[in-house]
Design a protein that fits this description.
There is one protein chain. By secondary structure, this protein is mainly alpha-helical. The chain is built from 7 helices and 2 strands; from the N terminus they run αααααααββ. It has a two-stranded antiparallel ribbon with strand order 1-2. Helix 2 runs antiparallel to helix 5, helix 2 packs antiparallel against helix 7 and helix 5 packs parallel to helix 7. The longest helix has 28 residues. The termini are far apart.
Amino acid sequence: MNIDHKLLASAREAYLRLLDLYRPLDAQISAAEPNWDPQDHFCTHLAALCADTALVMLGADHELSEPELVAFNTLFALHETPQSLASMAEWISQREVAEAEFFNRLDRFMLSSSLVDARSGSQRTLEVLDFFKSLGQLVALIDERYHQSEDHFYRQLCERIEASWQQVDNFVHEAEPALVLDLRNGSQSLYRLA
């Protein structure tokens, strides 16, 4: 199967644009809160969520192909071997705890991002959701056949995103404007936006 390098390049550009949306926000919060842990930065968590979303889908059928490996490494500028990628994908896709934690992380990111969007009037979170959904379409195009297990996770992801988005929308209107969730453990932390 020939890899559509133009498609991969376009996907990588979209991914980098997504991270660029959050870099100024990370810098702003870091300036206001010098002790803010870099592991809590929006870009850090967004990059991990995007990579894990792709890993869950690629590993869902337990048949990682060379095109999938190339696509993953190209999209996220990584240098994983077939063995390491297969191991990561298998760990995420086979363990219910890992999958539940993945969805919890997604929920926390969406809530925290939406709270900031509500205060600043930006639309970052909507662009994130669109990118997550497009990852499923990308996997379908890269894979020689779109497996039922991949489709199951993709539908589950889209349903979870929509449900979480409704909950977030209701919560944002009642929350303190400066409230942001600690993205690692869900605890509440405050900072002031200029």
